[in-house]
Amino acid sequence: MYVIAGLGNPTAKYEKTRHNVGFDVIDRLAEKYNIRVSDNRQKALCGTGIIEGEKVLLVKPQTFMNLSGESIGAILNFYKVEPETNLIVIYDDISLEPGRLRIRKKGSAGGHNGIKNIIAHTGTQEFLRIKVGVGEKPQGWDLADYVLGRFSKEDREKVEDAFERAVEAVSYMVKGETDKAMNLFN
Asked: Please, what's the b/e burial string for 25-42 (b: 16 or more CB within 10 A of its CB; e: otherwise)?
């Protein structure tokens, strides 16, 4: 089984913010593959289904971004899922232009506190990731204010397109074709 976790912050206050693009991609996956993400397990909203013949658990941690690892670590332990082979994490990246995707097989947290917490709770940096570009914070802005802010209309259109490409990337990744996804979408 694959655990596919989109990072974000719970509550309506944070919907459609830059930091919640992971939740947005999970919503798109749920819609496309008819998976209800409504079960409350291990401090997360979860839904079980099938993507490209593979059993998946879609996960939206409800711990707030910086504590995402608490939820994801507990889910991996409960379901006995190996993060190195069967975890895909989807999250925002300020070093990428809005709407750009970057798929990686492993890596450091790169300053992302949600990823830092996942690494701390799983004990590994080796898990699949889909980074969704949200753009660099403007000079003089506080980083938290920027990532918790909403996109301009133009940037929102770009990230909406990126969500569709991220859904397609997941379909390759669960079939073991991460290299192909990287070639197509990076």
From this structure: bbbbbbeebebebeeebb
What pLDDT does residue 87 have?
98
Predicted confidence at residue 145, as pLDDT, reads 93
8 A C-beta contact, residue 17 and residue 148: yes
Q: What is the pLDDT of residue 69?
A: 97
Q: Is 19 a catalytic residue?
A: yes
Q: Please identify every stretch of the chain with a pLDDT value under 50, giving residue numbers as ranges.
A: none
Q: How far is CA 36 from CA 25, 46, 130, 172, in A?
A: 14, 8, 22, 21
pLDDT tens-digit profile of 140-179? 999 999 999 999 999 999 999 999 999 999 999 999 999 9
- 2-6 and 54-61 beta bridge pairing: parallel
Name which of 34, 32, 29 is nearest 3 in CA terms.
29
Per-residue confidence (pLDDT) for residue 147, from 0 to 100:
93
Name the strands in the sheet holding 54-61, side by side, starting at the edge strand that comes first in the sequence: 39-41, 44-51, 54-61, 2-6, 87-93, 128-133, 101-104
Catalytic hit among 6, 8, 19, 72: 19
